[in-house]
Every structure is written in structure tokens, then in C-alpha cells.
Amino acid sequence: MRYYMGHEDFKECLEKAGETIGIVVPFPELKDVTIDLLDRPLRELRRWFLKEPNKPKLVPIVKALLMAADIAGSALPVKRELDIGKWISRTLGRRCSEVDIGNIVTKRLQGHKPREFQCQVKNASSRVALVRAGCGSGKTVAAYMWATKRAEGRKLFLCYPTTGTATEGYRDYIIPSEMHENSALLHSRSEVDIERVLETESGPSGQDAGLGINALVSWDVPITVCTADTVLGIIQNSRHSLYTSPAFMNAAFIFDEIHQYDSRLWRALLRFLEAFKGTPVLLMTASLPVKRREALATTLDNQIDIINGPAELEEIERYALKVSNEDPWPKVKSALAKGKKVLWVCNTVSRCVEMGRIAESRFGTDEVLPYHSRFRYIDRLKHHNKIIKAFKSEGAVLAVTTQVYEVSLDISADLLVTDLAPIPALIQRLGRLNRRARPDSLPCDAIIREPSHSAPYDKDDLEDARRWLRRLAGRPVSQKDLAREFEALADEQEDRTSIRSEWLDGGKFSGQAPLREAGYTIPVVREEDLMNAGGKPSRQFIVRHEIPMLLSEEVSREMNGWRRARHAWIAPSGRIDYDERWGAKWAKK
Question: Which of 12, 288, 399, 410 is the most buried (most CB within 10 A)?
């Protein structure tokens, strides 16, 4: 490859760098240099460069590869003595085979024949396919079947919307398979999750508990299970994504639950599809508004296969929706007395704790399981695993949760009680009710209650949900009914403008930008926990003990005087009240 070091743009970059570090002198004249940096694992990228050497995409590709080369050159020699060039060639050359991915499918099918729609997904002809199917339809098996063809000879990235869903995907599909040693769980907390998974699953021993904290691990495995941020973060110059980028250059991608994406993340996905032309991509969702489908079609010049889930499952009348603020406790008591599984979902942590304590006073501690985000992460995993185990076992159980369960818990309830929420959230919550229904099954009750206030949701979104429910309540409904009425009512005003990408649009000088819409929590570690770190806390210790706490105006004023531990704030002793059963809350002053 030829490097134009005598070019005016290169000179401008040097001058800018000099100004930044205080060097203001004339730079020497440099000559163009030819260096071949691309070896066989990146032959596809080599062809792209030779075909389109002067396109604007050259700059972002070079930025990404330079960042990746820097991390490889600086991090690897510290770990061990090796020939970096050979290591890069060998690791990037480790790709999926049809046989290996086929074994995952075989394990999951357990001797059953794949459904017709799963075969349609496998045989999708366009480079991008969209699967619209409800919860429990077998989308994930279909995705691996698709990968047997589309990911052969490539890396494979399975991208979930949250760390919880990524971990569950890894637990359910990769851990039981022969690909376990050739895969990675890659997200911000994966080293802790791996420990918890391997404590409860039978699999090869000796798994590195730190798997995933180093972006280079995705270079070295054929399959990576991760959050969408790991891949789409490259659009906004996320360092982790830039370091991982060489593995993207010859990969296939599966993005699950895309209806959960906020506007920024959705538009980042569209930019990704624009930038990575020729890359096989599978998109999966329970439903997708018309405007988003139109945006996909426009982005892809209508070159997309749309595959619907099996009608025989989509049309089962699973739910009886009841919008009511009547006392739900008699219904809950009756269900528990019959040994049923009950799921109660609240929109806020405070309401979750309130309902959980009421339930505990009525039914005792054994049947009531609280679950929300405001636990130390290591405790949250314990609550997560406890609910999964309880719903898979015989006997009554009441899980009182917040919306964190929506895309994290693979469970099937017999009764759902939920606060009113935006339509995509309600669809996701209903996906955990009567999940194993058959055509001859009776519908299960879903009681939707008006919350005392709209937080954390927008009032307009809740009003849309009320309109949606008026179309559905009072009759048995199916997943197809939910999706159809959602798509009919989808917001016509969704922002369809192309999002600015710091990676693609930043040119020679670019920064970083948030990938998702702003949240309202901050990662906090209690000083009481930090005292047990035994010296300087490791990243793993911080991840284990961090709590996402709501950022109030009062706390925002206090934080100026707080210390930091890596990425987390240290809350002074006594500032957070913590209970392992009910979680954390700011202490009253």
C-alpha cells in the first residue's frame, strides 16, 4: 500500500499534532512510502482498497486499523514474547466453519426438525435479511442456521441489546456446544458473567475469567457474543470498537431485538449497514414500525429479505389483556395457590421494592423474588440466576422486577401484572407470558396498571400505549395482533435524518460521541465495599461492586468532591443504604 507522506493532508496532521504537544517548527519534507500491511486474513479489505483507493471511506478505515495496530503493538509484547505479525495473521485467520456452527444448531434442536421459517432464514439470498418473529419462535436457532452459510470463512458477531441478553445467549447456545473454547463473551462486565455462567453450567474447566476484557480476544476466536455497542460503537469512534475492528473486516453480524434500539442506536445501525457494504447481516425483531422498515429498505436500496415467523405460532391467542387498576393481589394469590408462575413488572426501582415488600408480607420470602438494576453487579447476577432457576423448577413463584427483565430473562409466566409502558416494552414483557403456548392452550391474563407518574418514560409514549391497548383489550390476542397494531400506530414523526458518525464523517480530526441516548444513572461503588479491595481495586473488583445509581440534582452537586475508582464514582461511607435482598438507595441526609 502506498502512503502519501508528502501529501498536504499528512503535513496538516503533523502540524496539528505538533501544536497539541507544543512543537511549532517547520516540518521536513517527507517522501511517499510503499508498505504492505495487509496479509491474507484481510484479503477482502485488500481488494476493497485496490478497487476504491480514493473513496472517502479510506480515512476511517485507516483510522480504525491504526488504532488496532497500536493496541496490538503495545499490548501483546507485555503479555508474552511473540512475533506480532504471525500472531495477527494466525488469529485473524481463525474463522467459522459450516460444521462448527452446524453443531450448535444440532445441539439446540435436540433431534427435532427445523421449522420451515428457520429454513427460509438459512437460505436468505440477500446479504441483509430481516426476521420478524415473536418471542419463543426459534429465531436464535434460525440465526445460527443462517450463519452456517453466511459466516463460513468469516468471523461471527452475535449482537444483543444488553449485557444480560448477551450473557444469556452465550449461556444457552455457546456453553453447551463444542465451540465453547473458540468463542468469546465480549461486553463491559463479561469477565464477571463468565465466572457466574461457569459456576452453574457444566462445561470445559479452566476458562479464563478475564475473557472479554481485552478487545484483542475477538481477533482470536471465530464467534463473539457481545452487546450491540461492541460493534456499532465504531460509528462513534468507541475505542473498544476501533481496537476490535480488524475482526469486523471479514465478519458476519447478527443483531437481535432491534426493536429495543433507541433513535441514536437505530440510526447508528443504518450507518453501519451503509459503511459495511457486502457484509452479511441478519436483523431480528419481534416487530418493527413501518418507518423503520422503510429506512432499512432505503439504506439497502431495497436489497433485503424480510422473513416472517411461523404463522402457526404467531397466531396463537396467548394473551388476555386487561387494563385495570383494580386490586391484582387476589389474582396473584390464586395463581400462586395453584403453583403458577407470576411476573410483576414495575417501571421504577422504588415501586418494584414497594410491591416486593408488600408481596413478601403476604406470601413470605420463599415465593417472592425481587430483581432490578440497583444492586451491586455480583448480587444482581445472583438474583438473575435465582429467578431463572425458580421458573424452570416446579412450584409457585412471584418475581417482582423492573424493565431490566424485558430482554434478560428467558422465562415463561402464567400471569403478568405490569405498569403501563411504551408499546415495544409491553410487547417485550408479554413475550415472557405464556411463552410455551400451543394452538389448544388457553390465553393467560396480563393485567396492565396505570402508574402514578410517567417516569422514566415519555408521556406521549404512554398515550400511544393506551391507544394500542384500546385496540387489543377485551379479547384474546396473539403475537401477530400485537405487532400489527403496533406497526399501525407507530410514530410517524420518528427522526429519519442520518446521524453524524464521528468515525465516518470526522475526517482527519474526529472525536467521540455517545452511541445511545443519554441515561440518568452513574456507576457508583460504596466506600464500604472499597475497604475490602485489599489495595488498589482491580477493574474486576469495581465491576463486581458497582451500582448504577439515579443521578439526582442533589447528588450531582456532591459529586465534585468524590473520588473515582477507574470508571466509577466512590460514594462516601453511609451515603448509600444497601440491602442484598432489596438493593440500594441514596441515604436520607
Answer: 399
